[in-house]
Write a structure and sequence with these properties.
302 residues; 2 domains; 10 helices; globular; Jelly Rolls; five-stranded antiparallel beta sheet; disordered C terminus; Arc Repressor Mutant, subunit A; alpha+beta
Length: 302
Amino acid sequence: MPQPVRTSLEAIAATLPQPSNPLLGRRPGPLVLPDNIICFQRRSTRELNHPRRGRALHHRFVLILALRGGVPVCVDDRVIPLDPGEGLLVFPFQFHHYLALEDDRALHWAFITFDLADAQGLAALQYQPFTITREVRDYARQLISAYQEEGRTSELPALLLALLLAHLRRQEHAPQRQPAPDANPGLVTQVNQLAHRVDAPITIKELARTLGISQSHLRARFQASCGVSLGRHLRRLRLERACGLLRLTPDRITEVAAKCGFTSIYTFSRAFSAAYGRSPMDYRRGTRPRPTRPKPADRRPA
């Protein structure tokens, strides 16, 4: 693929006009920076669905950079082939997993996961692979280097990731390929969209009525296509929404619990701690999960 021609600093500076008003410049819009950034890598197809096999779902963005090797990525009900030299942005509350992993093949993929309060500006990237151009590679290199070298309180990784995302919004998508078959009939996507379209948590009865099927049929279809019960999935969505509110809003814990459909702070804290290994307050503060004690059957002699 031909690389864009680079213009020297001197050449582009020579095109600058004289300002009509030296005190009146351009003002940026509201700046929302990514938060809670985590960078990691996968070196083989066997590692891609690690640490748990099956579909991952969480409230965070997942930026995938396929540096070497490619496999299809299943996002909700779409199968998106991701070739070497391409990237993909998975949005919050989207199921995603990786296909064609029967044989353990070498690859090298970089992952950047993050929270972002305002996702509207990235909507054009949803389900759309992008080319890892030289500019994208440079931004990603600087970001990962800053992530490894700077302290946890440094703003540099967030600023560099914001620049990378701004560049991706302006970049053309990767060339369209022959569409892959759907991974499922789309029920998961419909449930997720309906669950996040309303302010209050939606019930199974309301979902069934909106989709025009019985509750029992909805439960059975969802279990067959997703591998977990619909009730458990909706509970997971409520907890993941709570994670986002805890990280991205100043709402009190009681307010977060109420917005996510929990009847009391006690039931919310218990469910949250069971799912994430730490209390809602510890999660907001960024405290590491508490180590879980092994079950008696798992204990081994020293």
